[in-house]
């Protein structure tokens, strides 16, 4: 007698985001939004005002858990993303990060070997430990069907902040460093690669069931530099995480990669590709069909601010383009503070309607 067929009753099988990342064309597609916890929500601003600084919020497990859950309660997204920041990595390494009101992040720039000497992987435990505690609390508090995404910045993007010292689009400083002193810049990237591997490993052990690597400044690099600083370090992170945790899917977000996006997918073997606003929908579909990657994106965050018929039309057009391929509905970049919360509610309603 043959064994009865077992329906897949594992808890994870109910998480639509994980099914999509495993290659299933889930319909309607799962939805979450980059920066879904943030200043556009009044309940976030309230908690943020009591936290005493943005990084204090990131390092406070009770408050970070609360703000991660806020958009889940309000909209019922298919995934929660850990509330933290990509600059926790340099901060934990000892390059102190400050967030100045209205100005964004500020770091003492690392421009040479001496600056590199101050970074200390052994010192990251205390700060990373607080993030892991947030992850563990979240997995306890989240509804079973909601996936929990852990994340880090990609080495190139994190390095651009470490070298420029600020959060503008100034990746020129890192590019110059890389051209002038390739050896020292390689050491910087190596440090961030090693640290990111341990950091993501810790998040998975604490309960994250998918990971995203944010490479916000991957655009504008000449192809050799894209290969050296975006692709190669990401390959190292993805392959080591896959060795340690073969079942945890990884989404790469090489913003602005343009014509390099396909190479990025094939070389890094990410399960999901975060697509920016400039990626044509036809190209997203082609990547899902022919490169075997789950595509995620790519609604313009400013369209979510303006709303109205243009928003509704674009949502319909996006759904049409993603029908029958493995996809995750998201924005092409983070939600902006001016976004009316009711526009997000409408977006979720339309996507869940699947038309
Ligand atoms: C480049 C980058 C950073 N941080 C991040 C990136 C990559 C994605 C991207 O390109 O947007 C990633 C990030 N930052 C934040 C998250 C939390 C999870 C989420 O809801 O997506 C994530 C995943 C919270 C945050 N990180 C930050 C805020 C706003 C800070 C506040 O509340 O005052 C939030 C909610 C601050 C931050 N952090 C960073 C900048 C440039 C800024 C200032 C810009 C701004 O003020 O919006 C660095």
From TrEMBL:
Catalytic activity from the UniProt record:
uroporphyrinogen III + 4 H(+) = coproporphyrinogen III + 4 CO2
Name the enzyme's class. Answer: lyase
Q: Which residues bind substrate?
A: 35-39, 85, 161, 216, 333
Molecular function in Gene Ontology: uroporphyrinogen decarboxylase activity
Q: Where is this site: Transition state stabilizer?
A: 85
Which residues does the UniProt record annotate as the domain Uroporphyrinogen decarboxylase (URO-D)?
A: 30-39, 149-165
Biological processes, Gene Ontology terms: protoporphyrinogen IX biosynthetic process from glutamate
Q: Name one GO cellular component term.
A: cytosol
Keywords (alphabetical) are: Cytoplasm, Decarboxylase, Lyase, Porphyrin biosynthesis
What EC identifiers does the entry list?
Answer: 4.1.1.37
Quote the pathway field. Porphyrin-containing compound metabolism; protoporphyrin-IX biosynthesis; coproporphyrinogen-III from 5-aminolevulinate: step 4/4
The subcellular location is: Cytoplasm
Superkingdom of origin organism: Bacteria
The record's principal subcellular location, in a coarse class, is cytoplasm
Quaternary structure per UniProt?
Homodimer.
Please name the PANTHER family in this protein's record.
Answer: METHYLTETRAHYDROFOLATE:HOMOCYSTEINE METHYLTRANSFERASE RELATED, UROPORPHYRINOGEN DECARBOXYLASE
- Functional summary from the UniProt entry: Catalyzes the decarboxylation of four acetate groups of uroporphyrinogen-III to yield coproporphyrinogen-III.
Q: Hey, which family's this protein in?
A: Belongs to the uroporphyrinogen decarboxylase family.
Task: Please state what the protein is called.
Answer: Uroporphyrinogen decarboxylase
Gene, per the UniProt record: hemE
